[in-house]
Amino acid sequence: MFRKFTKEDIHSRSKVKSSVQRNLKSKLVSQFPQLEEVIDELIQKKSQIELIKCEDKIQLYTVDGEVYFFQQFDELIPTLKLIHKYPQAFPTIQVDRGAIKFVLSGANIMCPGLTSPGARLPETPGYEKDSIIIINAENKEHALAVGKLLMSTDDIASINKGHGVEMIHHLGDPLWNFNID
Amino acid sequence: MLQEVVYCGVCTFPPEYCEFTGKLKRCKVWLKENHSDLYEKLYGDEEVGDKEVSGVAKNLADSSIGEEREEKLEKDLKRLQTKQENREQRELAKKLSSKVVIKREARTKRKFIVAISGLEVFEVDMKKLAKTFASKFATGCSVSKNAEKKDEVVIQGDVLEEVQKHIKGMLEEKGLKDVKMEIIDSAKKKKQPEGAEGAPATNGKK
Ligand SMILES: [Zn+2]
């Protein structure tokens, strides 16, 4: 999604009104209920959310200068910077070590990289197709990517062929390196 | 409770991923100096041998994918890294040795156009740039082919200096500081090779 993203893609920047700020916070919590505990710590009352509108209808939201989440359609998607602060709030899958370099190159994740002994999927009934999930790796503590399930995790396990996850955002992509100032 | 994650000062990743960035050597130096506890945790076991990439050795032992595949992976990774580094160097050299040409031309007595060529080497999306200029200067701007069949960005208006500044800033943002820029101001009848060091040295040698 951010493979070719540059500053030239930015159309406008604006401060978000406090009512909208409240709405965004409750939307985040409704999408990721476990964020409720920390949402006020994550986005404090005195923080200012800024909206950065970009090419292809991508909207980035920054909190105190750092991009915390974004959206292209209705759904809000957390960035790795946000995820690293409170990973337990997000549905997680794990790739094996062999898949790491592919993930870091921005490739979609193939099913076998998610079903081998070093990988981990949730127990049935896992996550639905189209869920936003975060991607960890074998023997690593922190997430390295965010993606969208192209099939349910149960199907990934049983079919075990083809692309399982569409890559959205990963360590080292232009969004990760994005610096607003 | 929110977690505070340390990010590598060299490659910006969480340090456990430094091994995949091709900068491991420098990353390790940084980590040792700035977060010795983390360094200990990630690379502690290898201190004795002090081999370059053996930080992976620990991971190797716990890895699920078997030693042979790990080794192959490691080799692939290294090859990829050297390849990447070489390619980056070649590209940088190429970029630094090319130049951007910004040309001002008179349309009528009081109307000018500014044309920029030589951008393709720098991976600039010219359509996007044209859009940016169009809104920045509130004028017409488009991409068209010049006499040499190369793309150039053409702006309606007398904006030579502003364009020069913008391009300079844009290249610097890409980490390219000393790119040559040739300014041709045909509206003034005179060539101004500003900033370009193209003039031959006058030390008598040939
Ligand atoms: Zn590093």
UniProtKB/TrEMBL annotation, chain A:
Protein name in UniProt: Translation machinery-associated protein 20
Protein family membership: Belongs to the TMA20 family.
GO CC terms, sorted: cytosol
Keyword Magnesium applies: no
Alphabetized UniProt keyword annotations: Cytoplasm
Function according to Swiss-Prot or TrEMBL: Involved in translation.
PANTHER family documented for this protein: MALIGNANT T-CELL-AMPLIFIED SEQUENCE 1, MCT-1 PROTEIN
Classification via Gene3D superfamilies: 3.10.400.20
Record CDD domains: MCT1_N, PUA_MCTS-1-like
Protein localization: Cytoplasm
A Pfam family per the record: Pre-PUA
Record gene name: TPHA0I02230
Keyword Lipoprotein on entry: no
Domain PUA: 91-172
Gene Ontology molecular function terms on file: RNA binding
Organism of origin: Tetrapisispora phaffii (strain ATCC 24235 / CBS 4417 / NBRC 1672 / NRRL Y-8282 / UCD 70-5)
GO biological process, alphabetically ordered: formation of translation preinitiation complex; nuclear-transcribed mRNA catabolic process, nonsense-mediated decay; ribosome biogenesis
UniProtKB/TrEMBL annotation, chain B:
Region of interest (Disordered), ranges: 187-206
Principal location: cytoplasm
SUI1 domain mapped to chain residues: 100-171
Any one biological process term the GO annotation gives: ribosome disassembly
Any Pfam family hit: SUI1
Gene Ontology molecular function: any one: mRNA binding
GO CC annotation terms, alphabetical: cytoplasm; ribonucleoprotein complex; ribosome
Subcellular location field: Cytoplasm
Keywords: Cytoplasm, Ribonucleoprotein, Ribosomal protein
Annotated family: Belongs to the DENR family.
Comment block on domains: The SUI1 domain may be involved in RNA binding.
Assembly mode: Interacts with the 40S ribosomal subunit.
Name of the protein: Translation machinery-associated protein 22
Organism placement in taxonomy: Eukaryota, Fungi, Dikarya, Ascomycota, Saccharomycotina
Originating gene: TPHA0A04770
